[in-house]
Amino acid sequence: MNALTVGGAVLVVLGILGFAIPYVTTQQTKDVAAIGDLKLQTTESRSYAIPPLVSGGALVVGVVLVGAGLYRKT
């Protein structure tokens, strides 16, 4: 498999994941205050939305790259 096919396959998988999981949430724990051995912590959550247009674009470009890689191989 050449680089075009592998890159295209990765984009196809990312595009499908973008449609399957449209929101990604991350959590980060921060130390707010520390007094001796006592520590106060807070957890901050952030959500990121993946637009369907981006997922569809990655999917289409991935399919085109896989096709170009297979066409170039023959």
Overview of the molecule:
The protein has 74 residues and is an alpha+beta fold. It has one domain. Helices cover 54% and strands 34% of the residues. It is built from two helices and two strands, in the order αββα. The chain has a two-stranded antiparallel ribbon. Strand 1 and strand 2 (38-49) form a beta hairpin. The model has no long low-confidence stretch (mean pLDDT 93).
Strand runs, count: 2
**In percent terms, what proportion of residues is strand?**
25-35%
Count of individual domains? 1
Mean pLDDT: 93
Compact description:
With 74 residues, this protein is α+β, with helices and mostly antiparallel strands. The chain has helices at residues 3-20, 52-73; strands at 23-35, 38-49. Strands 1-2 form a two-stranded antiparallel ribbon.
Sum up the structure in keywords:
34% strand, 74 residues, alpha+beta, single chain, 2 strands, two-stranded antiparallel sheet, elongated
Write the layout of secondary structure elements.
Blueprint: H1 3-20, E1 23-35, E2 38-49, H2 52-73
Antiparallel strand pairs: 1-2
Helix pairs in contact: 1-2
